[in-house]
Design brief:
Layout (H helix, E strand, L loop, with lengths): L2 H8 L7 H16 L4 E4 L3 H13 L11 H11 L3 H7 L6 E3 L4 H10 L5 H9 L5 E5 L6 H13 L2 E6 L5 H5 L2 E4 L5 H25 L2
Parallel strand pairs: 1-2, 1-3, 3-4, 4-5
Helix pairs in contact: 2-10, 3-10, 4-5, 6-7, 7-8
């Protein structure tokens, strides 16, 4: 049984999103292989989800993600016998930036310019065409997430939205929209968690098992 089959078996209603979930996983893998990073934004509980996703990507999630031989060699060249401790404790990461955590830049921009463009500004400043934006919004209409997605589109950055089941501004804009089958905020968030846990686990398995 694949990880996606397992996810659907545990949460059968997510079968309606199977193709989009699979496409999102492929987009995350492609971003990593292209040397890009994953930018993540959201508000409230979705901001916490953005932080959660980055936590699963920046360190080992279900695997240890040990250094490659080349990486270990670089540490040995720089640190000698002390390299063994670094090789034992450091884990390979999937570059991910929760835009929600950049509080100084966000609050300065909100104060000086316009809160609606807060995430758009960070996408504009940090984004490259090899990157991926994940915008999380239970309604799919959060204005600052919509502006971020529009900015990403202008920059040629691939976009994924995590929303509820209704069509929305993000579903109109984003390349991939995972519309989980609920309409109440907390119920949507309850589905977002297993979806992004799957995305992190499946991406990790693919990119690190191949090394």
């Amino acid at each position: 049984m694949t990880k996606l089959d397992e996810l659907i078996s545990r949460y059968p209603a997510l079968g309606a999103c199977r193709a989009e979930i699979d496409a999102a996983k492929d987009a995350m893998i492609k971003t990593y292989r292209a040397g890009g990073k994953i930018l993540i934004c959201g508000n409230g509980g979705s901001a916490a989800d953005a932080e959660h996703i980055s936590g699963e990507l920046l360190k080992g999630f279900l695997s240890r993600r040990k250094m490659t031989a080349d990486e270990r060699g670089a540490f040995e060249a720089a640190l000698g016998e002390r390299a063994a401790e670094y090789a034992d404790k450091l884990q390979r990461g999937i570059p991910a930036v929760p835009l929600t955590s950049l509080s100084a830049a966000l609050t300065a921009y909100i104060n000086d310019v316009d809160a609606e463009f807060m995430y758009a500004q960070l996408v504009f400043a940090l984004g490259k065409k090899e990157d991926l934006l994940i915008a999380i919004s239970t309604s799919g209409n959060s204005k600052n997430c919509v502006r971020a997605a529009e900015t990403a589109k202008a920059l040629g950055i691939k976009t994924i939205a995590l929303t509820g089941e209704r069509e929305s501004r993000l579903s109109d804009i984003c390349d991939i929209t995972i519309r989980v089958p609920e309409t109440e905020t907390y119920k949507i968030q309850e589905y977002h968690l297993p979806v992004y846990h799957y995305l992190c686990a499946a991406t990790e398995q693919e990119v690190f098992d191949e090394a």
